[in-house]
Automatic annotation (TrEMBL):
<dbReference type="GO" id="GO:0030246">
    <property type="term" value="F:carbohydrate binding"/>
</dbReference>
<dbReference type="GO" id="GO:0016020">
    <property type="term" value="C:membrane"/>
</dbReference>
<dbReference type="InterPro" id="IPR016187">
    <property type="entry name" value="CTDL_fold"/>
</dbReference>
<protein>
    <submittedName>
        <fullName>Killer cell lectin like receptor G1</fullName>
    </submittedName>
</protein>
<keyword id="KW-0812">Transmembrane</keyword>
<dbReference type="Pfam" id="PF00059">
    <property type="entry name" value="Lectin_C"/>
</dbReference>
<dbReference type="InterPro" id="IPR033992">
    <property type="entry name" value="NKR-like_CTLD"/>
</dbReference>
<keyword id="KW-1133">Transmembrane helix</keyword>
<feature type="compositionally biased region" description="Polar residues">
    <location>
        <begin position="17"/>
        <end position="28"/>
    </location>
</feature>
<keyword id="KW-0430">Lectin</keyword>
<keyword id="KW-0472">Membrane</keyword>
<feature type="region of interest" description="Disordered">
    <location>
        <begin position="1"/>
        <end position="32"/>
    </location>
</feature>
<feature type="domain" description="C-type lectin">
    <location>
        <begin position="83"/>
        <end position="187"/>
    </location>
</feature>
<dbReference type="InterPro" id="IPR042190">
    <property type="entry name" value="KLRG1"/>
</dbReference>
<feature type="transmembrane region" description="Helical">
    <location>
        <begin position="45"/>
        <end position="67"/>
    </location>
</feature>
<dbReference type="InterPro" id="IPR016186">
    <property type="entry name" value="C-type_lectin-like/link_sf"/>
</dbReference>
<dbReference type="InterPro" id="IPR001304">
    <property type="entry name" value="C-type_lectin-like"/>
</dbReference>
Amino acid sequence: MEASRSEISAADESEEVTYTSLKFSQTPPRAKAPQEKKVPHLWTAVLKGLAIGFGTLSIFLAIVLIWKMSDCHPHCPQQWMAYRGSCYFFSKEKKDWNSSQESCRAQGAHLLVISDTLEMDLFKRIQAECFWIGLRNSTSSGWIWEDGSVLSDARVHSNSHVQNCAVLMKHQFRASSCEVSAPWICEKALR
């Protein structure tokens, strides 16, 4: 039982094995250099830290500013009006000049002293009948303000020599008897 050579060679030919060579890439994907990875993360951390720091600082400054404004910012008492560093109170009740002066002093103020044209311009806008102001006639010195300064560059309209106290009436100074009852204007510095 000997097989012929031709049969063996045919069998060899039919059972021929084909080999294929497969190559798998063993190289890992290109990794970034260690510095390249750290730089973006470092900048992100720095920017986050700066944002938090500035946010905290902003909140702190806002709180300090609000606190300073509420505690230390000069202000006028309720029912007083602020203008150029002073507070003004317009009474609704009527008293004589001396009682009006006492009422202002009880509030840590004095009757209105108009010190310049800007302040006079403010009171010219008031079209009320009349208000006591801190201006009084002294027989020796003429018209004197409560702060001791002499009235200058203005005239007090008077009808009689017994009118020794002044009212502000329709943006003018008018002399009046000190016993007349009238509303008054108090003035004091902002605090």
